[in-house]
Design a protein that fits this description.
The chain is 71% helix and 0% strand.
Length: 731
């Protein structure tokens, strides 16, 4: 069997289990196991089949068993577990993915006895070994660093490729959580390895460990663990209900004061990560080019000589206006707002800096930025003490993810020594440190929200930029409706969580997702007692999806809660107009007109609605008003021209169409001018206008489509029906 066939068969078994068709799933699993070399799995399957057979037999006999449903759930989860392990074992011989390559590669004899307990002892001794080696020689220090990083890599790969923990593995992992000597950075790497392992294969023990790790005192460990748990809950949402002990465990965690807030925040941050491609495109195509263009054009605003005390702060205030007029101020503010929101504004900057050898190893994408990482330590040693302050600033920056910090560091150390010296000069670094308020940066960097956001950015980069990205499931491409996940719904399915999520979708123009949540909020009573604003937002999202009738209902509810709101009345008018209910649209447009009599859009649309209703004289009044308010208003001229034509005020109609033609005519303007000329009896002039209309239309067919819509109006004006085909042939 090839990889595709194996995965298809497994997917069918998974579908059967999701649909609670256990008997069929067991039969399909038996077929899959013929390809699997593990006899233990076959034995477990036979036992399951026998137990299920007896359960059905007892049920047939009418036996009352209060534990039947619990036993059934256990059988489903056990079947799923066997299917998981069977799939992986068969893929080990069929897949070219690195995960299976590692699993099928025989371990060297000296590593075969390395369990988590041994790994923990080696990692716990690292700081002492490093301190001692620093007193001896560089060679000794290199040896200690190499042993530490080899151990980390081995731990990562062993954890990642171990598809099912034994009770002993679980105990050893708990010892890692309890250890006071294990470095927080090393434990963070273990958490990431565990998350990737769970993405490959479900394991209840590992998920429970992640929930334990959330309560670890180190904020980096706890936030990483919670992000991992939420990703795993998303991936395995359809099977979580078969593990009631897991659901109960999550429910109990609500007693931790920060848990609900952390889950809701990470949910929002994950959704924000999905906007990175849009932000990245905006940065590359708009913000950065605009900044470069304007900075270069404003270079003449600096003097070429050194400033004295007298010359400080003596820039011309007009320059600030020039800065704002250039648009650079807006671009910088936009970038700053995105950054404060937690958006990933550095993806485009660092995407090209992930080609260093460091990033060829999977585990290096997940190791927190550290001075004790061998590449960093060696580079720092070569630079002497010079880079210390700058490195501290990089470390303390909460805006860069860990992998971006490594990219930045490696890039700096690839520069010629003279440029490095200039960048790392003590004076400049001291000034930078003073300006950046190091203590404030440090506190910001240690906030749970900063830590989780940084880690999500690291994950995003791994899934998008790693050389092995195609071998991993990219959860950021998927619909992340975590409030529907069984383990999280009790925490997230509340108004105070869902309203900000809906507003986020609205602000990012993700109308369908916004509508979905607003509908749910209405169902659970989320709008009761709330302000009209929520119904307005709901209506706005519906309007943007062209669901005008539904949008009207939402806006009417908002109107009940907050009558005569101008914004709401305007949007009711728009929706009624687009839904072709022109009479009601006019009612709401006139309400807006009372509050804003000079509003040109309202004036124009009232005229348009009156035209649609055939009230041409009244429509003309509005179009003349619009022409008075706004100079050279072609929209007003078009309205006057058409209403005058229909009202048989032909000279007036021709006057306004000629004004339009002198400005920026469209195909329809030429055609309407042709209609007026024809009705006035000037066939030659009409044919000239019609000819220009055909040219402006791009082709004759498009012109004919427009023309035939106006035939009724021409007949009403006295044009004979038999003359119409002759005129078209004349053209």
């Amino acid at each position: 069997m090839n990889e595709k066939t194996i995965n298809e068969q497994y997917a069918y078994i998974r579908t059967l289990l999701e649909e609670k068709r256990l008997k069929e799933a067991l039969m399909q699993l038996e077929s899959l196991l013929w390809q699997c070399p593990d006899w233990d799995l076959r034995t477990r399957l036979e036992q399951l089949q026998t137990s299920y057979k007896y359960m059905l037999e007892y049920m047939k006999q009418g036996a009352n068993d209060p534990e039947r449903w619990n036993l059934y759930q256990k059988m489903v989860s056990d079947t799923w577990g066997i299917a998981d392990q069977s799939r992986l074992l068969i893929l080990d011989n069929a897949s070219s993915r690195y995960y299976h390559e590692v699993r099928r590669t025989p371990k060297s004899p000296d590593l075969s006895n390395y369990g988590l307990k041994t790994i923990l002892h080696i990692l716990e001794s690292f700081n002492d070994d490093l301190a001692v080696s620093g007193l001896l020689s560089d060679e000794k220090m290199d040896e200690v660093l190499k042993r530490h990083e080899d151990t980390l890599k081995f731990m990562f790969i062993r954890t990642w490729t171990n598809s099912a923990w034994t009770p002993e593995d679980e105990e050893d992992a708990k010892a890692m959580l309890a250890s006071e000597l294990l470095a927080g950075d090393d434990l963070c790497l273990f958490v990431s390895a565990l998350t990737l392992s769970l993405m490959e294969c479900f394991d209840l023990r590992k998920i429970m460990w992640l929930l334990d790790a959330y309560e670890h005192p180190n904020v980096n460990v706890s936030q990483r663990a919670l992000v991992g748990a939420m990703i795993i809950f998303h991936i395995y949402r359809s099977r979580l209900t078969f593990y009631p002990e897991l659901i109960k465990r999550v429910d109990l965690m609500e007693e931790i004061p920060s848990f609900r807030e952390d889950v809701a925040r990470i949910y929002r941050q994950m959704l924000l990560c999905q906007e990175t491609e849009k932000i990245d495109k905006k940065m590359r195509e708009e913000i950065i080019p605009e900044m470069l263009k304007n900075v270069s054009s404003m270079k003449n605003m600096r003097f070429g000589f050194e400033e004295s005390d007298e010359e400080n702060n003596d820039m011309n205030p007009d320059w600030e206006d020039a800065f704002e007029k250039s648009g650079l101020g807006d671009k910088l503010r936009e970038m700053n707002e995105l950054q404060l929101e937690g958006a990933d504004v550095y993806m485009s900057t660092f995407a090209a800096l992930k080609n260093y050898p460091f990033f060829r190893e999977v585990h290096n994408w997940f190791y927190p930025f550290s001075k004790q990482q061998s590449n960093v330590l060696k580079a720092m040693k070569q630079a002497g003490n010079q880079g210390g302050s700058l490195l501290d600033l990089i470390l303390q920056s909460g805006f860069f993810s860990n992998s971006d910090k490594y990219s930045l560091f490696f890039t700096i150390h690839q520069l010629p020594q003279s440029q490095q010296d200039m960048m790392l000069s003590q004076q400049q670094v001291a000034e930078l440190a003073e300006k950046s308020n190091v203590e404030t940066m440090k506190k910001f960097n240690e906030r749970p929200g900063t830590v989780s956001n940084q880690y999500l950015h690291d994950l995003y980069r791994f899934f998008k930029l790693s050389v092995r990205k195609s071998e991993f499931r990219d959860i950021f491409k998927e619909k992340l409706d975590l409030h529907h996940v069984p383990a999280l719904d009790n925490i997230l399915h509340w108004e105070d969580v869902l309203f900000p999520i809906a507003d986020f979708y609205l602000s990012k123009e993700r109308w369908d997702e916004a509508i979905e949540i607003y509908e749910e909020l209405e169902t659970i009573g989320g709008f009761e007692g709330e302000s009209a604003e929520y119904y307005q937002k709901f209506g706005y999202a519906l309007q943007k999806r062209k669901k005008y009738a539904e949008a009207i209902q939402a806006y009417l509810k908002a109107d009940t809660l907050k009558p005569d709101n101008i914004w709401n009345n305007r949007h009711l008018a728009i929706c009624y107009r687009l839904n072709r209910n022109y009479q009601v649209a006019i009612t709401y447009y006139k309400k807006v007109e009372e509050a804003a009599p000079e509003d040109t859009n309202v004036t124009f649309h009232i005229g348009s609605c009156l035209t649609e209703l055939g009230q041409y004289e009244e429509a003309l009044n509005y179009f003349f008003k619009l022409d008075f308010i706004e100079n050279n208003c072609i929209k007003a001229w078009r309205g006057i021209g058409w209403c005058s034509f229909i009202s048989q005020k032909h000279e007036q109609a021709m006057k306004y169409y000629e004004k339009i033609i002198e400005q920026k005519p469209l195909a329809i303007d030429y055609m309407n001018a042709g209609h007026v000329a024809w009705v006035m009896g000037d066939i030659q002039k009409a044919s000239v206008f019609y000819g220009k209309a055909i040219t402006a239309s791009g082709n004759r067919e498009r012109f004919l489509e427009m023309f035939h819509k106006d035939e009724e109006a021409l007949l009403t004006q006295g044009i004979r029906e038999e003359d119409i085909p002759l005129m078209l042939d004349l053209l």
